[in-house]
């Protein structure tokens, strides 16, 4: 039997085919954004029993229609907001918060559990400013939680949360959850929005 | 003598294009992997704002998208005021409740509490519209929301 070599397939047009596909995918690609700031809306039915909150425990942030920022009745630049919010939350005015590192100013918030940030915006406020402010306020909480996590467990809070979500993480998840919950109760995110 | 008089041909040698398919394939695979086919055709401008404290939205099937922004150039006849888009058409604020109900009906019952509403809103829209959307969402008890943003410094917003 004569051994016949298989004829070579001409691959010269492979590049053309690949180009065709490439151009199709180039045109149809939209790299979708799938990250953002998570928030929880308050439920509709509101409990009517008025809880009395001391004025000093409320940090008012007001955004007007011209995108100006009024924090505690003073005009403020966006870049200073994070520091101001951290100072307010970490104040620990009544001494009940032994982990706070703030100034312990009696005129500011009692402890992080009681401190509430109240955000009010007008209908004319633009969305980007609102997101920037939300971002800064969330950042203030994250900074404090990170600080606390570093002190207690030597890792940052965001890393702990990432580990908790990671299925391949080898450590003990129940213990980690406990740690996360502890930090969350020490610095609860109390951000209320006024309609 | 002719030894020294070797004539150089003036034309450059042709570049080998043998590895061109490999390069093209490499690009092709990148785009094939990175591509997400759009579910909705956007009829609005959707330039998302920037933020850096973002969390990733996992479980894509448990997300309902609400778009808002001013109509894009092809839909000028709808005006320049920011509008809401649900699925493939413009909608009114009071249609959100029906939209959420329809989305919920299409999911398995035990997954309904985990549904998140992603708000993809143009950075130039104003908060009045968002406030209305949020109010509607509260009415139908869809409380988990996510303001979809691009990753970046908030100072890039201006």
From TrEMBL, chain A:
Per its UniProt record, what Pfam families does this chain match?
ExbD
What cellular component GO annotations does this protein have?
Answer: plasma membrane
Tell me a GO biological process for this protein: protein transport
Q: Provide the GO MF annotations for this entry.
A: transmembrane transporter activity
Origin superkingdom: Bacteria
Q: How does it sit in the membrane?
A: Single-pass membrane protein; Single-pass type II membrane protein
Write out the entry's keywords from A to Z: Cell membrane, Membrane, Protein transport, Transmembrane, Transmembrane helix, Transport
Q: Where in the cell is it found?
A: Cell membrane
Homology family: Belongs to the ExbD/TolR family.
Descriptive protein name: Biopolymer transporter ExbD
From TrEMBL, chain B:
Give any single GO term for biological process. Answer: protein transport
Q: Which UniProt keywords apply?
A: Cell membrane, Membrane, Protein transport, Transmembrane, Transmembrane helix, Transport
User: Where the protein is mainly located, per its record?
Assistant: membrane
Single GO cellular component term: plasma membrane
One GO molecular function term? transmembrane transporter activity
Q: Which InterPro entries match?
A: ExbD
| Entries under Pfam families matching the protein | ExbD
TM region positions: 12-37
State the membrane topology.
Single-pass membrane protein; Single-pass type II membrane protein
Q: Is Heme among this UniProt entry's keywords?
A: no
Name the protein family.
Belongs to the ExbD/TolR family.
- What is this protein called in UniProt? Biopolymer transporter ExbD
Naturally occurring in which organism (per UniProt): Seonamhaeicola algicola
């Amino acid at each position: 039997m004569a051994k016949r070599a298989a004829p070579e397939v001409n691959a010269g047009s492979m590049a053309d085919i690949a180009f065709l596909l490439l151009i199709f995918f180039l045109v149809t690609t939209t790299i979708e954004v799938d990250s953002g700031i998570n928030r929880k809306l308050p439920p509709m039915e509101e409990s009517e029993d008025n809880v009395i909150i001391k004025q000093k425990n409320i940090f008012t942030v007001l955004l007007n229609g011209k995108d100006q920022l009024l924090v505690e009745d003073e005009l403020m630049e966006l870049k200073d907001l994070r520091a101001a919010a951290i100072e307010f939350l970490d104040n620990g005015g009544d001494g009940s918060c032994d982990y706070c590192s703030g100034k312990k100013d009696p005129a500011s918030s009692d402890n992080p559990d009681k401190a509430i940030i109240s955000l009010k915006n007008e209908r004319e406020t633009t969305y980007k400013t609102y997101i920037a402010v939300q971002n800064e306020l969330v950042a203030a909480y994250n900074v404090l939680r990170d600080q606390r996590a570093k002190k207690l467990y030597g890792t940052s809070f965001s890393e702990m949360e990432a580990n908790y979500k990671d299925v391949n993480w080898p450590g003990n998840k129940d213990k980690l959850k406990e740690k996360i919950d502890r930090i969350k109760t020490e610095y609860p995110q109390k951000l209320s929005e006024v309609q | 003598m002719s030894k020294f008089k070797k004539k150089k041909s003036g034309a450059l040698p042709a570049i080998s294009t043998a590895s061109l398919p490999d390069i093209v394939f490499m690009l092709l695979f990148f785009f094939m992997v990175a591509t997400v086919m759009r579910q909705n055709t956007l009829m609005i401008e959707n330039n998302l704002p920037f933020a850096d404290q973002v969390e990733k939205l996992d479980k894509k099937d448990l997300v309902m998208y609400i778009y808002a922004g001013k109509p894009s150039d092809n839909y000028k006849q709808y005006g320049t005021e920011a509008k809401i888009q649900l699925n493939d058409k413009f909608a009114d604020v009071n249609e959100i409740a029906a939209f959420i109900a329809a989305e919920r009906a299409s999911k398995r019952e035990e997954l309904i509490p985990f549904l998140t509403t992603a708000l993809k809103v143009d950075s130039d829209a104003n908060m009045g519209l968002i406030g209305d959307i949020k109010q509607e969402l509260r009415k139908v008890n869809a409380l988990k929301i996510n303001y979809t943003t691009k990753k970046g410094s908030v100072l890039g917003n201006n």
